[in-house]
């Protein structure tokens, strides 16, 4: 009997063996092996189910034969169901290594980013510009480029224009 390695490619559902057999290695067997190891590394607290195994960027990972899977995605798919196409899982508890499916919600990437604590989310939550002017519909210009969308305070824009025009008038006056 020779050694057979099984390879599972995440998100595709494809699994292969190294023995070149026409039958692909069943995905269920790989998942069963991973799930057997998975629950040994979960510490249940009063609120979160914390992954105590390997982490990547704070998220739990588990691997087999060179394949790494995100543990929160694996537990969600096993206990709740498939993650809808185009959605990601948002940790409602904000604990990246939590694998409690009741703390995970499928949302769009945009919604996940805006719920977060990064700079994009913080800027989006601001209700006034750096000079204290409110971002109201009357005082805000929304600019969309090919890669981003941003807000501009019209009061500050008008003030910059007034200062620019004043400088230009002074330069013309001094040039005479």
Short synopsis of the structure:
The protein is built from five helices and eleven strands. It is α+β, with helices and mostly antiparallel strands and 176 residues long.
Please tell me how large the radius of gyration is.
Answer: 26 Å
Instruction: State the total count of DSSP E strands.
Output: 11
- Whole-number mean pLDDT: 84
Strand content: 25-35%
Tally of contiguous helical segments:
5
Shape: elongated
Topology:
Layout: E1 6-9, E2 14-17, H1 27-38, E3 42-44, E4 49-51, E5 55-56, E6 59-64, E7 67-70, H2 71-79, E8 88-91, E9 104-107, H3 109-115, H4 119-125, E10 140-144, E11 149-153, H5 154-175
Antiparallel strand pairs: 1-2, 3-4, 5-6, 6-7, 8-9, 10-11
Task: Explain this structure.
The protein has a domain of 51 residues. It contains 5 helices and 11 strands. The strands form 5 sheets. A 3-stranded antiparallel sheet has the order 5-6-7. Strands 1-2 form a two-stranded antiparallel ribbon. Strands 3-4 form a two-stranded antiparallel ribbon. It is elongated.
